[in-house]
Amino acid sequence: MIPNATIVIDKFHVVKMANKSLERARKAIRSQLTPQQRRGLLKDRFVLLKRKHELSDAEYLRYSGWILNYPEMGEAYELKESFFVIWNSQTRDEAQQAYYAWLRLVSPKMTRYFDPIIKAMGNWHNEVFAYFDHPITNAYTESLNNLTRVMNRTSRGYSFEALRAKMLFTEGFQKVKRTLYQRYPIPNNAISLFDMAAEPQIVTNYGSSISTLIKEFKMDSKSPISLTKSAYP
Fold first, then answer.
1. Which of 106, 132, 158 is where one domain is finished?
2. Residue 17's domain spans which residues?
3. Of 71-85, 144-158, 208-222, which range is least confident?
4. Which among 132, 160, 187 is the end of a domain?
5. Within 13 Å of residue 141, how many CA atoms lie on the same side as its CB?
6. Among 69-73, 172-176, 191-195, 227-231, which range has the highest average pLDDT?
7. Worst-scoring range by mean pLDDT, 16-30, 33-47, 163-177, 186-200?
8. Alpha-helical runs (H) found in the chain
9. Is residue 184 one of the residues assigned to a domain?
10. Which of 32, 89, 111, 208 fits 173 for a cystine, CB–CB 3.0-4.6 Å?
């Protein structure tokens, strides 16, 4: 243990609870509908879990129709969205005031869906808002872990040593330095001012840069990275 360390709860785990609260509300609303009504909510989970500014025109049109027919769904969605906005605050005090304002928006009907997040915020208040004093997250480590899992799946049960080699030496990701030529001393009987003699290439492989792996993973997180070709046999 580190004495006097400040505990900071990762904000991504906190906002994830808002999505779970919305999901509870969505399922409760759907459970009260007829099969025909539920068919009208096609892909509702996919749409509702997206941020409002990320909705396409077609998705926003569908969402607008849903909340006209099911106002509680719209209320739950807006609570989720406004909770996310709290994390745009610049200071701890601003964030706390934004949270208290959000808390006042939670109606008795919505409390049963958002109660877990409200309790968590109360129990871990200092640790949650410590993020605004120390804005750090575990996103880098978790991205690296996810990348390793993707590699492990595509490696089909390789040993740890083989998996490690694939991470470090996968073709296309490794950092390679090649020496193209080397200057030799000028001989005494040389006619030219200098002599450049080519020699066989010297290749130094430094393995894969972690930042390169993370960047590649973020570019296409839906499709596993092709790791079938290795730089070494």
1. 132
2. 11-132
3. 208-222
4. 132
5. 5
6. 69-73
7. 186-200
8. 11-31, 35-39, 44-48, 57-69, 71-86, 92-105, 108-123, 125-129, 139-154, 160-169, 210-219
9. yes
10. 208
pLDDT given for residue 142 in this prediction:
77
Q: Which residues pair with 181 in a beta bridge?
A: 198
Average pLDDT estimate for 70-79: 96
Spatial CA neighbour of 49 closest among 12, 83, 81, 72: 81
148, 162 contact by CB (below 8 A): no
> Do 209 and 118 share a structural domain?
no
pLDDT at 200: 52
Q: How far apart are CA 141 and CA 198, in angstroms?
A: 44
CA atoms of 18 and 47, how far apart (whole Å): 15
User: Is the CA virtual torsion 102, 107, 113, 116 positive or negative?
Assistant: positive
